[in-house]
């Protein structure tokens, strides 16, 4: 049986077992056993070499179940995690059954309550390691797999001693003794020392206070002047006193070290360095340097973004991020520096003067600050922390730990704490009972059910929204100026004592009454969506913004609130509203009340005014409204009332007008040149002229049976919903060029033939190109340019010879896209960046180049003759396979120049269309987290190789690109787990801050390159091709960032393109494709000019309008 060996390198990659080895030890149905090591600090350092515990082939462990005892399993290969095979009887545990394991294996061990321990009483020097060790693990069988994470039973002392201080050495003479005031060793000669695996405790008749340590002779030490010893000890409490004793030449005792244990004691799995003469300046500086090196190793320092001078012989004050005085570290500033791992006691305990630790925006999973007594400032937000131990940091005054996964945070005794930000975690309870200096507290977006603030008389800012708090006491917070407690379970809120309060947000609770009369300085009050029947704000004369919508308020007096600029009172029961004294009002939302009259002529600054009803036959019943004295009005809605006339001639800045469901027969918007949205459905209109509204984006006029025509001009392009009987008519008449020569229609041109592999098919075609643009070479040049641009990006560039590229000519009747034009594929420019066309006809043309049996793997690219920025990929369900099958059609305009074409081409065709990648951007939307159905659909397609660049887990160990996160060769590629992807801000994660799939620039990130590489090889070489990660990494060397200066930036500039439209997933195979252009979008066979409508689908206008209104409602928050 081999001993466990200590390899002098950091092992990252997990060695996988080959089929031949596995078959020797494992048959079908056997339980697979794997073992690794818990991330303790059993790391030994000497001569700047780092050693970690790892398995050696042949290492034997013992396994116990409730039915089986001491089964011997041996390691099948080397590594820090490896598979084990049975050497004799195999384990037969049931699903979820507990299994106990230990190392080193002992034949004489009969049960799990009495596992024999190695002797610690007598130890010999071993270079770079301890001679003694014992590790154990407890695991459960899951899906026929037993995964064990071993941990250490012993703690370890490290001491470096000059050999001249050890006179007796060699020839088995005791070199020195390690003596403790507590039991420090055990001895197993009499078979009396055991470890109970089940209870994880010692069972013994006797222990020892001494360890005898033997040092070899000078010859064996090869001329060393000093020796570093690692000594295994039993864990000690913080009350223990350690002495290192030797003898002088006269045989008299001498003590080299007398040392009290640190706070928390000597804990299992940790190495503690003891120093000779530890109080002299040179030793203190050495301790600090050693601590920094331990910090460096613990956080993967070799792969930091910037590790300048670290571990060098330069003063530590010159190490990147370190501030030090006379060698004593005062602050560590390593934000955004690619730190990963854990910062535990051994890394920081010897930094005696450390006052500030700044490690935000990294990949740390645990920080233990319990033995840094002088630390005052800690910022560690946006890491992967599940544990943050600050229980003993009583000097802490500034803590920022937001954006982690922390479930427990002990801040119960922090008398110096002034600022605490712990938002966006998983904290369920927060008890701040002794922080009299606290000024700001951010704990929103947690899982809090209990918040005890206690004695914090200086607290000015409290933000605890979006939790599950049912009660909160702020009566003693006399300095409070801001209180945010929205989205909780509050039924009452008492702020009577908080007379300094300026801002109160308590919306989305269940509060029945609210008294703010004793808050004269309040300027912002938002109590929307509660159960209030009244609210008195007469004494709040400083109010600037008031939101009280979604209650049952019947009357409200705002006559004293003359500074009010924003007022939301919609969805209440108001029968009257007087705003005559509120001349500063810019926003007034009073819709869905019971108003019969309303005068806003005294509001010259009014910009946003909603006074309509969005529920049928319920709400305000105004018959007239005068907005002639509101020249700054930009948004105006009078939906669903009894207006017969509406004059907006004095509102030239109007951007959004909603006047639907009123018996109005005509409306003049000729003076509204800034108008972008006009909602005028279900009215009595007979004519509408929008020709002077060049910026119009949305028009809704359905439900106007007498509206026969709408006047427009050719330059206009907008989304619309109109009746079938309504015509768009050009005001001054317009003629378009029409093709006459269709001889080239459907002609196939082979642009490239594959010279390697089976050939991968891409078909290019264009829409909106007339016969004359084909004849003069424009069409062909565009296809060839697009082909070259497609292969300008890796991995496509390196594997171009695997592709067949075709062009199919499509002759359109008209050129470009505007109202009244007809094109070969009926392509449309939709809302935002949505585009599309007649998929059935596109695929019909693609089959002119490809046989049917190659269509399921084909990519079809349709380039639209337009300069608009847009793009949408239509992705058909695959027929099978794990390499992203399924036909895709990527539609996009050619844009304003070659760069615009290239960027959209890479995103839509190279990313979505070929590689089946998802979007990595987010958009602002009402639902900002994915639904369960969305997740299930994405995961179902993931089994076919789709969506390799996004995931729904935050765990860096299981996320799809975890292998890249743990591969130091990708240290500078900006890889991490970033929240926000697939359009959602929350609950979906992407690999990098920027990439082609987010901002169309910056190249494909590593997981995306891997997906492209994988599909290229599967299509080119068939099912027999097998993926090999190391082969991909070897190819990918040309793409990886080599150093910090070439690293993908984390900060994105403001000039990035707006997001392209999300891909449209078509549930069905390509051969069932239809004309996907919505009905009103299609060119109808009449003598009228009709536009290709630009929206995807609107079934009922009321539904669309309701979604719009709901979106606007979120503005109040």
Task: Round the mean pLDDT to the nearest integer and report it.
Answer: 86
Tally of contiguous helical segments: 14
Q: Count structural domains.
A: 5
Structural class: alpha/beta
- The CATH class designation of the largest domain is Alpha Beta
Choose one word for the global shape: globular
Beta-strand portion reads 15-25%
Gap from first CA to last CA: 67 Å
Oligomer: single chain
Helical amount among residues, as a percent range?
10-25%
CATH topology of the largest domain: Leucine-rich repeat, LRR (right-handed beta-alpha superhelix)
Radius of gyration: 36 Å
Q: Major sheet: size, sense and barrel closure?
A: 20 strands, mixed
Question: Which residues sit in consecutive blocks of at least 5 with pLDDT less than 50?
Answer: 1-28, 39-43, 45-51, 1044-1056, 1080-1117
| Total beta strand runs | 60
Report the CATH superfamily of the largest domain. Ribonuclease Inhibitor
Task: Provide the CATH architecture of the largest domain.
Answer: Alpha-Beta Horseshoe
Question: How would you characterize this protein structure?
Answer:
- This protein has 1117 residues and is of the alpha/beta class.
- 12% of the residues lie in helices and 24% in strands.
- It contains 14 helices and 60 strands.
- The chain has a 20-stranded mixed beta sheet, covered by helices on one side. The protein has a 7-stranded mixed barrel with strand order 2-7-6-5-8-11-12.
- Strand 5 and strand 6 (71-75) form a beta hairpin.
- Helix 6 crosses helix 8.
- It starts with a strand and ends with a helix.
């Amino acid at each position: 049986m081999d001993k466990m060996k200590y390899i002098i390198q950091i092992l990252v990659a997990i060695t996988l077992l080959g089929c031949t080895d596995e078959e020797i030890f494992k048959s079908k149905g056997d339980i697979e056993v794997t073992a690794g090591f818990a991330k303790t600090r059993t790391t030994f350092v000497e001569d700047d070499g780092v050693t970690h515990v790892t398995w050696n082939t042949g290492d034997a462990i013992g396994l116990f179940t409730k039915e089986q005892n001491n089964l011997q399993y041996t390691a099948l290969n080397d590594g820090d995690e490896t598979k084990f095979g049975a050497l004799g009887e195999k384990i037969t545990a049931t699903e979820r059954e507990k299994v106990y394991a230990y190392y080193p294996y002992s034949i004489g061990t009969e049960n799990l309550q009495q596992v024999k321990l190695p002797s610690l009483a007598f130890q010999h020097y071993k270079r770079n390691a301890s001679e003694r060790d014992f590790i154990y693990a407890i695991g459960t069988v899951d899906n026929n797999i037993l995964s064990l994470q071993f941990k250490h039973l012993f703690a370890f002392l490290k001491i470096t001693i000059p050999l001249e201080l050890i006179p007796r050495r060699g020839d088995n003479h005791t070199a020195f003794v390690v003596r403790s005031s507590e039991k420090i060793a055990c001895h197993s000669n009499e078979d009396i020392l055991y470890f109970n695996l089940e209870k994880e405790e010692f069972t013994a008749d006797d222990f020892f206070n001494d360890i005898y340590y033997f040092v070899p002779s000078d010859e064996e030490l090869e001329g060393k002047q000093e020796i570093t010893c690692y000594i295994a000890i039993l864990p000690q409490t913080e009350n223990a006193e350690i002495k290192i004793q030797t003898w002088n030449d006269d045989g008299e005792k001498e003590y080299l070290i007398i040392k009290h244990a640190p706070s928390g004691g000597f804990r299992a799995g940790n190495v503690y360095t003891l120093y000779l003469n530890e109080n002299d300046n040179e030793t203190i500086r050495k301790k600090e340097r050693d601590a920094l090196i331990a910090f460096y190793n613990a956080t993967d320092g070799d792969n930091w973004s910037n590790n300048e001078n670290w571990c060098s012989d330069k003063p530590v004050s010159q190490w990147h991020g370190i501030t030090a005085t006379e060698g004593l570290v005062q602050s560590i500033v390593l934000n955004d520096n690619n730190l990963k791992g854990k910062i535990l006691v051994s890394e920081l305990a010897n930094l005696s003067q450390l006052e500030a630790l700044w490690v935000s925006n990294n990949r740390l999973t645990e920080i233990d600050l319990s033995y840094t007594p002088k630390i005052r400032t800690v910022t560690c937000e946006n890491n992967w922390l599940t544990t943050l131990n600050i229980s003993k940091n009583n000097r802490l005054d500034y803590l920022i730990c937001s954006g982690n996964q922390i479930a427990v945070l002990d801040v119960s005794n922090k008398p110096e704490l002034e600022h605490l930000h712990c938002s966006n975690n998983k904290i369920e309870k927060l008890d701040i009972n002794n922080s009299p200096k606290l000024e700001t507290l951010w704990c929103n977006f947690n899982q809090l059910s209990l918040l005890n603030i206690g004695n914090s008389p200086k607290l000015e800012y409290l933000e605890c929204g979006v939790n599950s708090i049912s009660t909160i006491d702020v009566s003693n917070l006399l300095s409070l100026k801001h209180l945010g407690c929205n989205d909780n379970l509050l039924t009452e809120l008492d702020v009577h004592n908080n007379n300094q309060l300026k801002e109160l947000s308590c919306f989305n609770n269940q509060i029945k009454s609210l008294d703010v009369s004793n808050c004269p300085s309040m300027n912002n009050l938002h109590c929307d969506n509660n159960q209030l029947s009244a609210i008195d704000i007469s004494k709040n004369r400083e109010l600037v913004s008031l939101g009280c919508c979604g209650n049952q308020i019947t009357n409200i007096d705002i006559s004293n609130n003359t500074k009010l600029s924003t007022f939301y009172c919609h969805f209440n029961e108001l029968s009257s509203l007087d705003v005559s004294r509120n001349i500063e009002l810019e926003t007034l939302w009073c819709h869905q009340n019971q108003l019969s009259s309303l005068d806003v002529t005294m509001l010259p600054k009014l910009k946003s005014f909603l006074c309509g009803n969005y529920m049928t036959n319920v709400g305000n019943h105004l018959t007239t409204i005068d907005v002639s004295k509101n020249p700054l009005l930009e948004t105006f809605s009078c939906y669903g009332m009894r207006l017969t006339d509406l004059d907006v001639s004095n509102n030239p800045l109007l951007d959004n007008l909603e006047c639907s469901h009123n018996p109005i027969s005509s409306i003049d918007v000729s003076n509204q040149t800034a108008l972008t949205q006009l909602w005028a459905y279900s009215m009595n209109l007979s004519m509408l002229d929008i020709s002077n509204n060049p910026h119009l984006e949305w028009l809704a006029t359905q439900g106007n049976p007498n509206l026969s025509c709408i006047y427009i001009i050719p330059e206009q392009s907008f989304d619309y919903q109109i009746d079938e009987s309504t015509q768009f008519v050009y005001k001054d008449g317009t003629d378009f060029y029409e093709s006459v020569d269709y001889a080239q229609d459907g002609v196939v041109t082979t642009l490239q033939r594959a010279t390697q592999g089976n050939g991968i098919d891409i078909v290019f075609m264009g829409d909106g190109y007339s016969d004359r643009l084909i004849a003069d070479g424009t069409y062909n040049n565009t296809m060839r340019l697009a082909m070259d641009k497609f292969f300008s990006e890796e991995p496509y560039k390196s594997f171009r010879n695997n592709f067949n590229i075709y062009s199919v000519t499509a002759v359109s009747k008209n050129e470009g896209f505007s109202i009244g034009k007809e094109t070969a594929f009926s392509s449309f420019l939709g809302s935002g960046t949505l585009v599309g066309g007649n998929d059935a006809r596109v695929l019909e043309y693609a089959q002119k180049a490809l046989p049917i049996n190659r269509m399921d793997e084909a990519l079809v690219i349709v380039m639209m003759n337009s300069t608009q920025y847009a793009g949408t990929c239509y992705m058909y369900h695959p027929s099978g396979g794990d390499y992203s099958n399924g036909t895709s059609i990527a539609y996009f305009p050619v844009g304003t120049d070659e760069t615009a074409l290239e960027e959209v081409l890479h995103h839509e065709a190279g990313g979505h269309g070929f590689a089946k990648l998802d979007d990595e951007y987010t958009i602002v939307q009402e639902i900002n987290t994915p639904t369960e159905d969305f997740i299930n659909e994405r995961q179902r397609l993931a089994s076919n190789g789709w969506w390799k660049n996004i995931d729904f887990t935050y765990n860096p160990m299981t996320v799809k690109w975890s292998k890249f996160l743990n591969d130091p060769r990708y240290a500078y590629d900006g890889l991490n787990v970033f929240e926000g992807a697939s359009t959602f801000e929350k609950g979906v994660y992407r690999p990098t801050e920027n990439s082609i799939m987010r901002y169309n620039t910056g190249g494909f990130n590593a997981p995306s390159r891997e997906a492209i590489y994988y599909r290229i090889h599967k299509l080119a070489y068939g099912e027999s091709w097998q993926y090999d990660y190391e082969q991909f990494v070897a190819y990918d060397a040309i793409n990886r960032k080599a150093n910090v200066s070439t690293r993908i930036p984390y900060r994105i500039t403001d000039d990035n393109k707006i997001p392209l439209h999300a891909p449209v997933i078509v549930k069905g195979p390509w051969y069932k494709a239809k004309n996907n252009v919505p009905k009103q979008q299609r060119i109808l066979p009449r003598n009228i000019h009709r536009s290709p409508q630009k929206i995807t689908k609107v079934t009922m206008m009321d539904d669309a309008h309701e979604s719009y209104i709901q979106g606007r409602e979120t503005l109040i928050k």
